[in-house]
């Protein structure tokens, strides 16, 4: 039984000393065929998994005229993937006892969650579709477009300023 599973596609190979210290056990590392660096921490006495995957992308990589694209993409990915529609993804994750959160930060889109370890294979199947095969259904796209922030809003303007200021660190 796997207690904690952490998947990372990283900018560099790294395991936080805090993560290793808090866990108190060994953390195995290997390269997945997809190119992802995988970290695995097992505790066989605990029937629960926690996972984290970060894909290099995010607000700092948004094209100049498409600020918010990473955030929009993160919100949209689980609305259709592979052969699954939004309702099927939500239902399957619920039946598996999995909580999935997809968020966009400045340098990555993160997939975080937890659930029962006995459902790991099914979780990997659903999560693989969401990450590798999002379908971006038109009907779902139209729903999200209607909810997006107005370009004249203070939040949009502040995000542009923040992105401009932070981009100085990536040059």
Give me some keywords for this one.
25% strand, globular, 171 residues, disordered N terminus, three-stranded antiparallel β-sheet
Descriptive notes:
This protein has 171 residues and is of the alpha+beta class. 36% of the residues lie in helices and 25% in strands. It is built from 6 helices and 8 strands, in the order βαβββαββαββααα. The protein has helices at residues 17-23, 69-76, 86-95, 120-132, 138-147, 154-167; strands spanning 4-8, 28-31, 37-41, 48-56, 80-81, 84-85, 99-104, 108-116. Strands 1-3-2 form a 3-stranded antiparallel β-sheet, with no helix packed on it. The longest helix has 14 residues, at 154-167. It is globular and about 50 Å long. The chain starts with a strand and ends with a helix. Mean pLDDT is 75; it is low at 1-21.
The chain-level structural class is: alpha+beta
Number of helices: 6
Helix coverage percent: 25-40%
Q: Widest sheet: strand order?
A: 1-3-2
List SSEs in N-to-C order.
EHEEEHEEHEEHHH
Strand proportion, as a percent range, falls in: 15-25%
Gist?
This protein is an alpha+beta fold. It is built from six helices and eight strands.
Task: Give the SSE map.
Blueprint lengths: L3 E5 L8 H7 L4 E4 L5 E5 L6 E9 L12 H8 L3 E2 L2 E2 H10 L3 E6 L3 E9 L3 H13 L5 H10 L6 H14 L4
């Amino acid at each position: 039984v796997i207690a904690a599973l952490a998947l990372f596609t990283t900018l560099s190979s790294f395991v936080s000393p805090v993560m290793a210290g808090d866990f108190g056990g060994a953390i195995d590392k290997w390269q997945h065929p997809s190119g992802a660096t995988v970290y695995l921490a097992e505790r066989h006495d605990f029937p629960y998994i926690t996972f984290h995957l970060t894909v290099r992308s995010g607000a700092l990589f948004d094209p100049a005229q498409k600020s918010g694209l990473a955030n929009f993409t993160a919100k949209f990915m689980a609305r259709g993937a592979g052969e699954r529609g939004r309702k099927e993804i939500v239902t399957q994750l619920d039946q598996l006892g999995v909580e999935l959160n997809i968020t966009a930060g400045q340098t990555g889109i993160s997939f975080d969650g937890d659930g029962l370890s006995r459902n790991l294979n099914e979780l990997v199947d659903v999560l693989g579709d969401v990450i590798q095969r999002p379908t971006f259904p038109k009907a779902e796209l139209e729903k999200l477009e209607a909810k997006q922030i107005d370009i004249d809003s203070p939040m949009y303007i502040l995000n542009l300023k923040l992105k401009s200021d932070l981009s100085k660190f990536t040059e």
